[in-house]
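Page 37, continued from 36.
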C-alpha cells in the first residue's frame, strides 16, 4: 500500500485534538482581552499588562486559520464518505442548526452581562447610547460567526467541486492539484499561501494591524481579508485530504515552520506597535504593506507549525484529548457570556492579572465541562453536536452460563 492509499477510515487524532485546542483557546483569548493596556473590550479590568495583549496576539495569529484548514480537510473526508446528500444533511444538523438555535440565546446572555456590568458601574438606561439599526450588513454574529462562515465555505466548496468534476472528466486537473499541494509543503509554502492574504490586508480599509485577519463577526458577508485568509486555509485543507501522505512531510518540516512563524510573527507584532498595541489603522502604505506581508507569512507558518506539533505529539489515541475535543464545540458555543460574567466578577480584585486570568479560564472551563457532561454528552444533544451519544454506563456484557 502506498502512502497516498492510506486508510481513510482511520481517525486523525492529532488534527482532531488541534481542532479542539483551537476552540478551547478561544476561552483564553477572550479572557485576556480585559487586561489589555488599552481598553478594547467591554469589561476593563483594573490590572493591565502587555503580556496579556502579547498572549492574545500569539493565539490570534494561528487559531482560526488552523481551525479552517482542518475544517476543509474534514469536509473533503466526510464528502467522500457520505456523498453530497449525506454531507449536506450532516452539516445542516451539526453546523446550521446549532447556529440557528444558540445565536439568539447567546446574544441575549451577552446583553444581560452588559446590563449587569453597567449597573455595577452606576450607569442607567439613560446613559446608554441609542441602539443601532441592524440589517444583513451589520448583523452581530457574536463569536458564533465561524459557524456562518463555515456554511458559506461548504456551499462554495460543493459548487466548485461539482463544476471541477464536470470539466475534469479524465482526472488530469485533479492530478495537477495534487502535485501543487505537494509543492507547497516546505518553508516556501507560507509565503505562497500568505500572498493573497497579504494583498487583501493591504487593501483592507481602516485595518488595525495588531488584530491580523479582521474577525467577520458582523454582517452576513465576511470582510474580504477574512474570506481570503480563512478561505485559502479551508481550500488547502480540502486539497491536503487528497494527499494524506503529505502530513508526514508537514511534521518533518515542523521546526522550520515554527522558526518562520516566530520570526514573521515577531516582525508583525513590532510593526503593529508591539505588545502595547497601536490600535489605530496604519496610514503609511509602506508600513502597511510590510505589516500585511509579515502577517500573511506568520499566519500560515504558524498553522503548519501547529499541525506539525499536533502530528508529532498528539497522534495517538488519548481518552482525555478525545473527551476535550468532543466537549470543545459545546464549550466554545457557551463560553463568551461566561467569560464576560467571570471578568465582571474579578475586575475589582486586587490580584495580579495572570491570577485573575487563570481564575476566569478555570472557572469558565469548569462550568462548561460540567454542563457538557450533565446536559450534552449523554443526551440527544450529544448526538446532535458531536455525532454520537455516549451512554452513562457501558452495557453489561452477557454472562455466559455453561451448559449442564
Amino acid at each position: 500500500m502506498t502512502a497516498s492509499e492510506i486508510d481513510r477510515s482511520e481517525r486523525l487524532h492529532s488534527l482532531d485534538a488541534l481542532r479542539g485546542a483551537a476552540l478551547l483557546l478561544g476561552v483564553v483569548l477572550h479572557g485576556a482581552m480585559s487586561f489589555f493596556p488599552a481598553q478594547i473590550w467591554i469589561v476593563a479590568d483594573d490590572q493591565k499588562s502587555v503580556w496579556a495583549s502579547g498572549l492574545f496576539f500569539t493565539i490570534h495569529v494561528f487559531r482560526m486559520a488552523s481551525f479552517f484548514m482542518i475544517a476543509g480537510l474534514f469536509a473533503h473526508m466526510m464528502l467522500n464518505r457520505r456523498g453530497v446528500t449525506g454531507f449536506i444533511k450532516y452539516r445542516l444538523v451539526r453546523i446550521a442548526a446549532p447556529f440557528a438555535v444558540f445565536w439568539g440565546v447567546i446574544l441575549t446572555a451577552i446583553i444581560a452581562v452588559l446590563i449587569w456590568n453597567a449597573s455595577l458601574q452606576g450607569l442607567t438606561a439613560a446613559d446608554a447610547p441609542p441602539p443601532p439599526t441592524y440589517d444583513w450588513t451589520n448583523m452581530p454574529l457574536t463569536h458564533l460567526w465561524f459557524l456562518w462562515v463555515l456554511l458559506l465555505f461548504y456551499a462554495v466548496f460543493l459548487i466548485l467541486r461539482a463544476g471541477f468534476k464536470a470539466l475534469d472528466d479524465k482526472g488530469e486537473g485533479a492530478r495537477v492539484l495534487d502535485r501543487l499541494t505537494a509543492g507547497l509543503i516546505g518553508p516556501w509554502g507560507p509565503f505562497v499561501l500568505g500572498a493573497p492574504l497579504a494583498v487583501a490586508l493591504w487593501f483592507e480599509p481602516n485595518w488595525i494591524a495588531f488584530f491580523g485577519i479582521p474577525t467577520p463577526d458582523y454582517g452576513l458577508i465576511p470582510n474580504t481579508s477574512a474570506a481570503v485568509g480563512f478561505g485559502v486555509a479551508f481550500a488547502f485543507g480540502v486539497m491536503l485530504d487528497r494527499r494524506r501522505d503529505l502530513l508526514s512531510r508537514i511534521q518533518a518540516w515542523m521546526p522550520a515552520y515554527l522558526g518562520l512563524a516566530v520570526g514573521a510573527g515577531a516582525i508583525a507584532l513590532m510593526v503593529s506597535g508591539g505588545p502595547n498595541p497601536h490600535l489605530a489603522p496604519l496610514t503609511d502604505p509602506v508600513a502597511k504593506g510590510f505589516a500585511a506581508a509579515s502577517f500573511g507569512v506568520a499566519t500560515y507558518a504558524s498553522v503548519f507549525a501547529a499541525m506539525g506539533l499536533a502530528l508529532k505529539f498528539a497522534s495517538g489515541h488519548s481518552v482525555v484529548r478525545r473527551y476535550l475535543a468532543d466537549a470543545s464545540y459545546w464549550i466554545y458555543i457557551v463560553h463568551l457570556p461566561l467569560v464576560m460574567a467571570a471578568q465582571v466578577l474579578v475586575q475589582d480584585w486586587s490580584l495580579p492579572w495572570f491570577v485573575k486570568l487563570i481564575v476566569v479560564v478555570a472557572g469558565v472551563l469548569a462550568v462548561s465541562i460540567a454542563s457538557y457532561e450533565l446536559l450534552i454528552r449523554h443526551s440527544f444533544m450529544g448526538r446532535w453536536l458531536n455525532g454520537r451519544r455516549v451512554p452513562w454506563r457501558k452495557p453489561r456484557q452477557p454472562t455466559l452460563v455453561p451448559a449442564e
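Residues 1-9, 400-404 have pLDDT under 50 and may be disordered. Flag for discussion at group meeting. Residues 50-120 form the longest helix (71 residues).
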